[in-house]
From TrEMBL:
Belongs to the krueppel C2H2-type zinc-finger protein family. SMART domains: ZnF_C2H2 (SM00355). It comes from Xiphophorus maculatus (Southern platyfish). This is Zinc finger protein 271-like. It comes from the Eukaryota.
Length: 469
């Protein structure tokens, strides 16, 4: 009996010792089930990373992290999905993927009831409500909501691009960027919209598309209350208020509001056009240019105006069109305060002040203010008329001439005067008419300074000076 008591006392002492050893000694006294879990936790405080990769010398806090990392070198993906046979490096990646098939979203936000497939997605979302950015860059003090955002940002300072494509050797800062790029080579689009069956290369592309059907704009600007479909659109917009242009070109020091603007600009220096059309082999600098071009072949016009149901190939065309209804002219000239519906109209106008004509024809050296003017001119040399009318087979040099012609068949007059409701087939006719109301005469004769409402009146007048008939 004495021995039994002593044994019990010994067991109690051992349990007490284990319990004491398995309490973290830092403030908070976090408790652990066993000593190995406690040791792993203590590495958070010490910063110790005792496990190193034999191939790249990267170090890790625990053996499981090391094993996950080593799969990058081996390319091994031991976990496969039973429904689509897609393979994954780790079990957690497989579990996240399987939620795509089940459409289950078990995690709910307590503030807005939005649902998520995994806990990490919920945590990232909750930072929108709190505005918390707990992760700070040690070099520029910029703050981030999550560690992945911080890591991606830190690669800007290091210029490191550790992930390379096996087919074209293009390099990327993160694995997700590499994966998105590899879909260019495979043409795989695994994500499909349940409402219109349009397919996408990545889940984020699908999510952005689905907002077209729902019309939802959950992101609001705190300064002007304008709403946006995604956070990237909101961030780009907010730079209008701040005027910040954090991205600069290393070759000409021109600055940009976002990385996509910088990338598009850098292609000017490289002349690289990595995106090619599968139907006519025309090449483009960016994926957006390729998509817009492909709609010429398909005839697809996915963007429609809510007021007149006119359809457009791209969102920029729709936005520009909608300003006809609203009368909005957000772009103003700094020299004469004339206002324009779009930036291209402003740029074209500004060249009236500067006289600049940066585009020259390679055959006759005639110079033009913009690339569209040059392209239209070059067809004089080639005789090319690629745009044909589907009703009478008449061909045209450019799409605007074709559109003007097609109004003959339809009889449509979509442009109306706001003062007298007279209607016109094209915007030039409307503009010329509006000068009757305004009395504006923007065309002046260089010899006698007489002014005219339109260019045809000026040309007719100039023949009086030249004697030409």
């Amino acid at each position: 009996e004495k021995l039994c008591v002593e044994e019990k006392a010994g067991v109690s002492d051992t349990v007490a010792s284990l319990e004491e050893n398995q309490i973290c000694t830092t403030p908070g006294e976090k408790r652990f089930r066993n000593s190995s879990t406690q040791k792993l936790h203590q590495h958070n405080h010490t910063g110790e990373k005792p496990y190193s990769c034999g191939q790249c010398e990267k170090t890790f806090k625990d053996s499981s992290s090391l094993k996950s990392h080593q799969l990058i070198h081996s390319g091994e993906k031991p976990y496969s999905c039973g429904q689509c046979e897609k393979r994954f490096k780790d079990y957690s990646g497989l579990k996240r993927h399987q939620l795509i098939h089940s459409s289950e979203k078990p995690y709910t936000c307590g503030q807005c009831e939005k649902r998520f497939k995994d806990y990490s997605g919920l945590k990232r979302h909750q930072l929108i409500h709190s505005g918390e950015k707990p992760y700070t860059c040690g070099q520029c003090e910029k703050r981030f909501k999550d560690s992945s955002g911080l890591k991606r940002h830190q690669l800007i300072h290091s210029c490191e691009k550790p992930y390379s494509c096996g087919q074209c050797e293009k390099r990327f800062k993160d694995y997700s960027g590499l994966k998105r790029h590899q879909l260019i080579h495979s043409s795989e689009k695994p994500y499909s919209c349940g409402q219109c069956e349009k397919r996408f290369k990545d889940y984020s592309g699908l999510k952005r598309h689905q907002l077209i059907h729902s019309g939802e704009k959950p992101y609001t600007c705190g300064q002007c209350e304008k709403r946006f479909k995604d956070s990237s659109g909101l961030k780009r917009h907010q730079l209008i208020h701040s005027g910040e242009k954090p991205y600069s070109c290393s070759q000409c020091e021109k600055r940009f509001k976002d990385s996509s603007g910088l990338k598009r600009h850098q292609l000017i220096h490289s002349s690289e056009k990595p995106y090619s059309c599968g139907q006519c082999e025309k090449r483009f600098k960016g994926s957006y240019g390729l998509k817009s071009h492909q709609r010429i072949h398909t005839g697809e016009k996915p963007y429609s105006c809510g007021q007149c149901e006119k359809r457009f190939k791209g969102s920029s065309g729709l936005k520009s069109h909608q300003r006809i209804h609203t009368g909005e002219k957000p772009y103003s000239c700094g020299q004469c305060e004339k206002r324009f519906k779009d930036s291209s109209g402003l740029k074209s106008h500004q060249q009236n002040h500067t006289g600049e004509k940066p585009y020259s024809c390679g055959q006759c050296e005639k110079r033009f203010k913009d690339s569209s003017g040059l392209k239209s001119h070059q067809q004089i040399h080639t005789g090319e008329k690629p745009y044909s009318c589907g009703q009478c087979e008449k061909t045209f040099k450019d799409s605007s001439s074709l559109k003007s012609h097609q109004l003959i068949h339809s009889g449509e007059k979509p442009y109306s005067c706001g003062q007298c409701e007279k209607r016109f087939k094209g915007s030039p006719g409307l503009k010329s008419h509006q000068r009757i109301h305004s009395g504006e005469k923007p065309y002046s004769c260089g010899q006698c300074e007489k002014r005219f409402k339109d260019s045809s009146g000026l040309k007719s007048h100039q023949q009086n000076h030249s004697g030409e008939k």
